[in-house]
Design a protein that fits this description.
Helix content: 40-55%
Largest sheet: 11 strands, mixed
Bound molecules: adenosine-5'-triphosphate
Radius of gyration: 35 Å
Strand content: 15-25%
CATH class of the largest domain: Mainly Alpha
Distance between the termini: 69 Å
Structural class: alpha+beta
Number of domains: 4
Number of strands: 28
Length: 924
């Protein structure tokens, strides 16, 4: 195909070259071309090879530390320990690799959950298809916020601008036209009548013919050069990398300390050295980071199941700390399934029946059905304006999808349905009134206009927000025909608008005029003035049923909800009241105009209001609110769907885009995408975010808790003449064997009850804080130590040992006592893992069977321990002794002590949270 000078071709040449027409290609032809050209996809360049990623697990800092330890063991004449450490390195590397792999798989599978769609004309009908199925020759329709899905030549463009940054680096939107390029100096990439894959439509709309797809596009050509994966670490991961290093150094210090202490107390060099190496090896937290990554990835997967796709692992933890949600109204809090209910004109007031998008329903005036064959003049005109000043399409039911639907903006869709209820169809109407231009809707102007031919005459049809439309009207259609718009008319219209708004209805105004045939440039200034006001259309957009509960949950969780909407204040307030965002008699409603005049300081003061709504705002205002909130130290989640929402989405801690109704651009900059556009999913995601953060704390607590019962006996051993309380190999078996699965399982705990009853954590809170250390090392650690030492001395004394008697490890009694300590740590860790399942709630409030992996982990832990104790070959390696079953039961008696102490701690914590909440409530 000759595409080099595609921008110089006339429309006819273009159609001929690409073997297509204004009606697009046929479905069969599309299939054939798909086979020929392949999917419209950018092929990913192979990332770092699996092998080198696997090897990386052997060469990071902590692994190197272990290698050194193993070499020292060999040099020091302890090959058994040396081999054990190598085994540890291998097991750890395999484990980490598997975790990373699973985490990656989890995030990769999410990508597939958010396919990109495109509006295409095939067989003369507009339909929506997957962007990857696009082929050369397809005629596509592009509008504000769309991602350009392939390289295409424009054949029609209305006020269209694209952002070509991905291709040219230029971030300012550039103007696009459909004119043939005659200038010789223009290159393909500069041609204003071409749109390229990877760029976005910043404003306006247009129709284009695809000439290159997939790797044949300009973007495809450069993508293969520039594709890189940026594996950005989350703050949590960064914090943990630091913590892991600190712990590694600490264990180094501890190792040296025990070494010196042992020597000082006259222990043999070999014994103390071996123990020091063991302590270091056991405590180097090499598994910490991959476990956190996996916990985050699992969180991401759970969120996806609850309709929130998180694009960066790091957002999971940020989400958990959200303190404010700034949300749109339409589509997020409401269903975005509009149905026109009432129509007001200066002549009459109409009610409209029917539900959803099915074009079935009647018009009534004072309960009298209107005969649609004999429509009153002003109603007929109003319906035509709504139908023609419109870019949506009604989708008829099919066998696959038996319900009526729309393609495009639901506000506009409802107007198509309305017109069809009176028997008008878009095709017929466009035949009578062909469209010659349009001034697309934008959320600043809050209006849309389309320009049509009618015979030799030219008409302008405008619809938009009532006050914004009224401001460009000078006439009104009344009983006596067209008359000058008086103040009394304006008062009537505003009064009626407020009435509609107070009952939560969304209102649009319709206006029109005939214009001079001489006008050639249809700009906003030339066209949107001196209009004739026709009437108001009020549509219902019911709140989503699940939102009310979600709002309640968010409030309970101490999260403030601020509605920021383009809609009218009274409509916004009415909806906010219905779903419980507003409860007080007088919420503060700030309009975009007011906000413009407000200083940042004043805005911050206003934001302290408990109930606040921003109405009739433009997207830029959202940015101002988000910036002020962030300045106040809040962690802000904000929703957005349009191109102009991008700065606010970027600025916020969590930018949330809509998967269904939002634009591609918003989805691209957002950190989270809601696949169901539903506010309730944000609250669910916050719950999951909190759970992930808690889980990481849970498994770190669990891991920390075994260090104390390992260290205390050994300190006693160093200081007093007692038999070896636990051997290095046994410690390694615990830390790197029995512990692993239960720790991992804590990372995937579902959210604990009451996780949304607490206030958000402070953004300054550190993951590893004093309370975590105290809980792990002190509370849980000391109780375990008491149990372990009791078991150890019980075995010794009942075996005939007395204080001061020297007993080498070769003595069966010494081995039996050491095995008892080993068994004690394992069994106390079983109690510990159940205690760690919750941080605040009672352990008994979560179902025992909910975390399957945890139960499997515990069984694995116990079976492995039994093997280590009873299999003769393992007994030799681990210096274990086959203790009788009653010794196991000995520790079971200690389990309630640990669990009871934890339950008391949790109870006190719950009381504290509840009284804090009361205080907070009282202060508002
Ligand atoms: P939210 O910001 O909560 O999503 P919204 O949809 O009302 O609410 P915008 O899309 O900015 O916000 O719309 C602002 C106003 O412009 C609407 O309240 C409506 O009056 C008007 N409007 C919306 N869509 C159209 C359209 N397609 N054509 C003309 N006017 C429209």
């Amino acid at each position: 195909m000759k595409t080099d000078d595609i921008f110089r071709m006339t429309e006819d040449q273009l159609f001929k070259e690409l073997d297509t027409s204004i009606k697009g290609i046929s479905k069969e032809e599309a299939k054939k071309r798909l086979e020929k050209y392949g999917y419209n996809e950018i092929k990913e360049v192979k990332k770092t090879s699996m092998f080198s990623r696997f090897i990386a697990n052997f060469t990071h800092l902590l692994a190197i530390l272990l290698w050194i330890a193993s070499i020292l063991s060999f040099v020091g004449g302890m090959p058994q320990l040396g081999w054990a450490i190598i085994l540890v390195i291998i097991v750890n590397a395999l484990f980490s690799f598997w975790q990373e792999f699973k985490a990656e798989q989890a995030t990769e599978s999410l990508k597939k959950m958010l396919p990109s769609y495109v509006k295409v004309i095939r067989d003369g009908q507009q339909e929506q298809i997957l962007a990857r199925e696009l082929v050369p020759g397809d005629v596509i329709y592009l509008e504000e916020g769309d991602h350009v899905p392939a390289d295409a030549r424009l054949i029609e463009a209305f006020e269209m601008r694209t952002i070509n940054a991905a291709l040219t680096g230029e971030s300012e939107p550039v103007r696009r036209t459909s004119d043939v390029v005659l200038d010789d100096d223009v290159s393909l990439i500069q041609a204003p009548n071409l749109v390229f894959m990877g760029t976005n439509v910043a404003s306006g709309s247009g129709t284009a013919v695809v000439y290159a797809t997939g790797m044949n596009t300009q973007f495809g050509k450069i993508a293969s050069l520039t594709q890189t994966i940026s594996a950005e670490q989350s703050p949590l991961q960064k914090q943990l990398t630091r913590v892991a290093k600190v712990i590694a150094y600490l264990s180094l210090v501890m190792g040296v300390f025990f070494f010196l202490l042992g020597l000082l107390m006259g222990r043999s060099l070999v014994d103390t050295f071996m123990f020091a190496i063991g302590i270091i090896t056991a405590n180097v937290p090499e598994g910490l980071l991959p476990t956190v990554t996996l916990a985050l990835a699992m969180g991401v997967q759970r969120m996806a199941k609850r309709h929130a796709l998180v694009k960066k692992l790091s957002s999971v933890e940020t989400l958990g700390g959200a303190t404010v949600i700034c949300t749109d109204k339409t589509g997020t809090l409401t269903q975005n399934e509009m149905t026109v209910r009432e129509i007001w004109t200066k002549v009459a007031y109409y009610n409209v029946s029917g539900v959803g998008y099915e074009p079935k329903g009647d018009f009534y005036v004072d309960d009298q059905k209107v005969d649609v064959k004999n429509l009153p003049n002003e109603l007929s005109l109003l319906l035509k304006i709504g139908l023609l000043c419109n870019n949506s399409r009604l989708v008829r039911p099919t066998d696959e999808n038996p319900s009526w639907g729309i393609i495009g903006d639901p506000t506009e869709g409802s107007l198509v349905v309305l017109a069809e209820k009176a028997g008008f169809t878009l095709e017929e109407m466009l035949r009578e009134y062909p469209r010659i231009s349009q001034l697309p809707f934008d959320s600043r102007r809050k209006r849309m206009t389309s320009i049509h031919k009618y015979g030799k005459e030219i008409y302008v049809f405008t619809k938009g927000a009532p006050k914004e439309t009224l401001s460009v009207c000078n006439y009104i259609l009344s009983d006596d025909g067209i008359k000058k718009l008086e103040q009394s008319d304006i008062d009537d219209i505003v009064k009626q608008n407020d009435k509609f708004a107070e009952s939560g209805l969304r209102v649009l105004a319709m206006a029109y005029k005939k214009i001079d045939n001489e006008i050639k440039e249809y700009s906003i200034e030339n066209v949107e003035n001196d209009l004739i006001f026709v009437g108001l259309v009020a549509m219902m957009d019911p709140p989503r049923p699940e939102v009310e509960l979600a709002v309640k949950q968010a409030h309970k969780a101490g999260i403030k909800i601020i509605m920021i909407t383009g809609d009218y204040g009274l409509t916004a307030e009415s909806i906010a009241r219905r779903i419980g965002i507003v409860k007080g008699p007088r919420p503060r409603i700030i309009t975009g105009n007011e906000l413009d005049k407000m200083s940042d300081e004043d805005l911050k003061k206003e934001l302290k209001n408990k109930e606040i709504i921003f109405a009739r705002v433009a997207p830029e205002h959202k940015m101002k609110v988000v910036a002020a909130l962030k300045d106040m130290g809040e962690v802000v989640a904000v929703t957005g769907d349009g191109v102009n929402d991008s700065p606010a989405l970027k600025k916020a801690d969590i930018g949330i885009a809509m998967g269904k109704s939002g634009t591609d651009v918003a989805r691209e900059v957002a950190t989270m995408v809601l696949t169901d556009d539903n506010f309730a999913s944000i609250v669910n995601a916050i719950e999951e975010g909190r759970a992930v953060y808690d889980n990481v704390r849970k498994f770190i607590t669990y891991i920390f808790a075994h260090l104390t019962p390992e260290a205390i006996p050994y300190i006693l051993f160093s200081l007093f003449n007692i038999p070896v309380p636990i051997t290095v190999m046994q410690i390694l078996a615990i830390d790197l064997g029995t512990e692993t699965l239960p720790a991992l399982a804590l990372g995937v705990e579902p959210p604990e009850p009451g996780v949304m009853d607490r206030p958000p954590r402070s953004p300054k809170e550190k993951l590893l804080n004093l309370s975590l250390f105290l809980r792990g090392y002190v509370l849980l650690g000391i109780i375990s130590s008491i149990a372990v030492l009791s078991g150890y001395f019980w075995v010794l004394y009942s075996g005939g040992w007395h204080w001061g008697m020297t007993l080498p490890l070769s003595d069966p009694l010494a081995r039996k006592a050491a095995t008892m300590s080993f068994l004690g740590i394992v069994i106390m860790q079983v109690a510990n893992v159940f205690a760690c399942r919750t941080e605040v709630a009672s352990m008994f409030s979560v179902s025992f069977f909910k975390n399957r992996l945890l139960n499997i982990g515990v069984v694995f832990e116990l079976v492995l321990t039994a093997l280590l104790i009873y299999v003769p070959f393992l007994q030799k390696i681990f210096d274990t002794y086959p203790v009788p079953f009653k010794n196991w039961l000995f520790y079971v008696a200690f389990m309630p002590l640990l669990i009871g102490a934890e339950e008391i701690r949790k109870y006190i914590l719950r009381r504290k949270i509840a009284s804090n909440q009361k205080e907070v409530k009282g202060s508002i």
